[in-house]
Amino acid sequence: MSEPVTIGGWPANMIDAAGERRFAGVTRVFRYPHGRVAIVTLLILVVVAIFAPLVAPYDPLQMHMADKFASPSRTYWFGADEFGRDIFSRLVYGTRVSLLASIVAVSITTIIGVPVGLVAGYFGGHLDSVIMRLVDFLLAVPGIILAMVIVVVLGPNVVNAMIAIAIIGIPTMARLTRASTMSAKEREYVEAARSIGASNRYILGRTILPNISAPIVVQVAIAAAAAVLLEATLSFLGLGTQPPTPSWGNLLSTGRQYMYNSPWYGVFPGLMITILVLALNSLADVIREMLDPSSRRTRG
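Now predict its structure.
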């Protein structure tokens, strides 16, 4: 029988074991009632977004001028807008915008923020100081103000809104990753990797990153909810998705103007935003409880 491989006196499979153990229970998300509700809600919204042409009973841009401000009925489930367009169909297509904005923005935030935080926390020194001062500057500016400035400079459209949302999310992700890296780099498994001459790239990517993934995953879920709200805010202000393309934010903005004639116009977009944000926040809570032992003990 072959001898087990050791690294600096430690079994090789123990170096990355801590990070793997944290994710071994991810499938237990359905044991949490609010986790089941969150997952089912998100799956429904994803299916609606993917199959929007099949779910929506009308073309979202199709006008029926004779049915302006029609009340919710069998013909128009959520009523009709000022041009007789079906609000339900526009909400269905608006789901695509909200989910896509959230996915793209959070992906960019994670791809940039995590490596920046890893490098700053691991190497420290002047590099850490320069990176953190830039991060502090971005954190000092209110997120919505910074997003508005970025969109105004780049031009108001959904793509630039995604870029703005991603940029304002990078500082938080970088700071979280840096703090976790500074704590992890002093652990025994990192010392074991260093003792056999492992490269910095290996230590960062294969040793430290898996072991600090728990707070990063939770932050991703929280950032996704924030991205949905921020995209809706920018669209509400006319800086995100531009009409006639439907999004929950611009539907809410337009519906606000007709609250007396058509109160349901603004209610349904606001309800959809609330449902998605609550689902993402609930998912973040479940992930935190699963990956953080201290959280489970406190809850118990």
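The chain has a mean pLDDT of 84.
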